[in-house]
Design goal:
Alpha-D-Glucose-1,6-Bisphosphate, Chain A, domain 3; TATA-Binding Protein; seven-stranded mixed sheet; 13 helices; about 25% strand; globular
Length: about 425
């Protein structure tokens, strides 16, 4: 560990500035340690390796793959893929391990790794990182007979899988807002292969935008108005839940999620932000859906993982079953006024949270993820980002004026 910056091991993945904090040498050594970790877990199959569209990603993926080969493991080379396609390939191949080279939404100067082990289990701070860090001391020095690197394409199988969940009952026109990265070409190809769906520049029934690696999605309505992930998730749950289902939501999502679940006879558990936390909780509790305010949506039917295109297939199906505009379908869930995430740069997030904990001690407090405080008519959550030097604030109120007042009040305190 003396040659690798320990700070790159974050709560649920590996991330750092390239090449100062995370480079090809680190990727190679982590791959070697990861393979020995898999061996200790008695996972003996191939390791799947994919990467996003960052300039540094191909060379980092090559270094990681070489580390796998030098440990005597076979590597499945996916090339440039979206993160959900990586999840699909990993599960389809029944791989022993997997690495996606990506830093998700972080700036282009960053890069990192998302690691999986057999069965789709996330390797993160609570499960795996401590063992891998210990193995880093010796793993890279051990070289076995080289494994084989095999290029493998899963895109067609992925689209076939997604289309099973896209039952488009009437013609729909949609817009796809262009974004950089590996996700846009896949989304364009997926849409092109759907019956009754046509991509247009204007006059659409709804639109959507993906993040660069394709695991987050934000919708827009027929008036080009942005749709809060709260409303998209509430709409999905209200139409898809069965009595007895269990769903998860991050602590910063709207109270409307609780109300929809109650009305549908389903149970809701609140969880900490972060894909590793959520996927682990979904597997343990066998949850059917999970959602985050950032636009991550998770599905039991998609290996307990998040996929923007899987969410798109569900929303297109639900909208197509109704003759009403998307905005009208969403209007029943616009009951509260929710700020969305408000970000503040700081390296003293814990101090800020502790101070506000004392100042708002007269409210009902929860510490599942940062600080959540509930009052009559409004509530807020404040938690530290796990990937950037930020503290994130969410405020929700019964009235718009109250929400705006509390945003101003808390902003001044932060």
């Amino acid at each position: 560990m003396s040659e690798i910056n320990p700070m790159i091991f974050r709560e649920y993945d590996i991330r750092g500035v390239y090449p100062d904090e995370f480079d090809e040498d680190a990727a190679y050594k982590i791959a070697a340690a990861f393979c020995q970790y898999l061996e200790q877990k008695k996972h003996f199959g191939p390791v799947v390796v994919g990467y996003d569209a960052r300039i540094s990603s191909p060379s980092l993926a090559n270094a990681f793959r070489q580390g796998v080969l030098d440990q005597g493991r076979d590597a499945l080379d996916l090339g440039m893929v979206s993160t959900p396609l990586f999840y699909f390939a990993f599960n389809s191949a029944k791989a022993a391990g997997g690495a996606m080279v990506t830093a998700s939404h972080n700036p282009e100067t960053f890069n990192g790794l998302k690691l999986l082990r057999e069965g789709g289990e996330i390797v993160y701070e609570k499960d795996g990182f401590s063992e891998i860090k210990k193995l880093l001391e010796s793993a890279a020095g051990r070289k076995l007979e080289g494994g084989s690197s095999i290029k493998k394409e899963f895109r067609g199988e992925y689209f076939t899988f997604l289309k099973k969940f896209a039952e488009i009952k009437r013609p729909l026109k949609i817009t796809l807002e262009a974004s950089d990265g590996s996700a846009y070409p896949l989304a364009k190809e997926f849409i092109g292969g759907l019956e009754n769906v046509r991509a247009v520049e204007a006059g659409a029934d709804l639109g959507f935008k993906l993040d660069s690696d394709g695991d987050r999605i934000v919708f827009s309505d027929e008036n080009k108005g942005a749709v809060s992930p709260n409303l998209a998730y509430a709409f999905l749950l209200d139409k898809a839940l069965e009595p007895g289902d269990l769903v998860l939501a991050s602590v910063s999502m709207s109270k409307i999620i609780d109300e929809v679940c109650f009305r549908r006879g389903a149970s809701l558990s609140r969880v900490r932000v972060g894909h590793a936390n959520i996927k682990s909780a979904m597997r343990v509790e066998n949850a059917r859906f999970a959602g985050e305010l950032s636009g991550h949506f998770y599905f039991r039917d998609f290996f307990y993982s998040d996929s923007a295109l899987f969410m798109l297939a569900h929303i297109l199906t639900l909208v197509s079953k109704s003759g009403r505009p998307f905005s009208e379908l969403l209007s029943p869930y616009q009951k509260y006024f929710h700020s969305g995430e408000l970000n503040f740069e700081t390296r003293n997030s814990e101090d800020i949270i502790e101070r506000l904990k004392k100042e708002y001690s007269d409210g009902r407090q929860s510490f599942l993820d940062g600080l959540t405080v509930e009052f009559s008519g409004w509530w807020f959550n404040l938690h530290a980002s796990k990937t950037e030097p930020l503290v994130r604030l969410v405020v929700e109120a019964d009235k718009k004026e109250l929400m705006e007042e509390k945003i101003k009040e808390l902003t001044e305190k932060i």
